[in-house]
Amino acid sequence: MLYKHILVEQDQYKVLTITLNRPEVRNALNTATLLELLAVFQNEAQKPEAHCIVLTGTGVAFCAGQDLEERRAFAYPPAGNEPAEKPSIMYSLRQRYNPLIKAMRDSARPIIGAVNGVAAGAGCSLALACDMRLMAESAVLMESFVRVGLGMDGGSSYFLPHLVGTAKAFELALTGDKVEAIEAERLGLVNRVVPDARLMEETYALARRLAAGAPQALGRVKRALNFAQDATLEQALDNEAVLQQEAANGQEYPEGLRAFFEKRPPKFS
Description:
Largest sheet: 6 strands, mixed
Mean pLDDT: 94
Oligomer: single chain
CATH class of the largest domain: Alpha Beta
Strand content: 15-25%
Strand order of the largest sheet: 1-2-3-5-7-10
Number of helices: 11
Shape: globular
């Protein structure tokens, strides 16, 4: 399927790459882009040949956040062309942003964000919604919502404190300050910082390593970690037991055992 605002590529190593492709506006998110991203995560990203997903941006930015040009016409309409009512940000979030973030978190595939440049506002939220993040040395993260008089969206109010703790989350969200790559790594916002020129090389090395693994096991690990973020220890333990029994009833665990005893690499399908 062809898309207007994103590029989608499936390679022979079972890695699906989704690239935001609006470099002229630093990959800002308009309605059409959000709908295309949601369609990809609901379709191509669910196909058996996609074992791991890479999300990145074209040009100098990962994603500058919401495309404010799309909303400026409503905020400052030409005289005599005032809309009957202001556009509902709540509607936009509930119908476009929220389903996209949920689709990313519910996906059984691990998602690696290759943060190639600035990730601000909703773009930062999009990066934080990935399971892992590799960040170029020149890139920055920024919870920039307060700079335009808004709160938080795209799941940042959930992801940020889970990654850096409540106090630091308050600081980053209330100030809207830029977080340089090295500081982002120190805070635990990203897994690794790499030279700009090696970002995609390092990202694909990790993605292909994951994609070569047991796909159902990867999905169960993601489900377990997501569940445990808001669970008690007892609930997490019980959920682990359920997921492990699912694994035991499947095909990957027997193959893993056979490979272990036969001293050979497992062949997961």
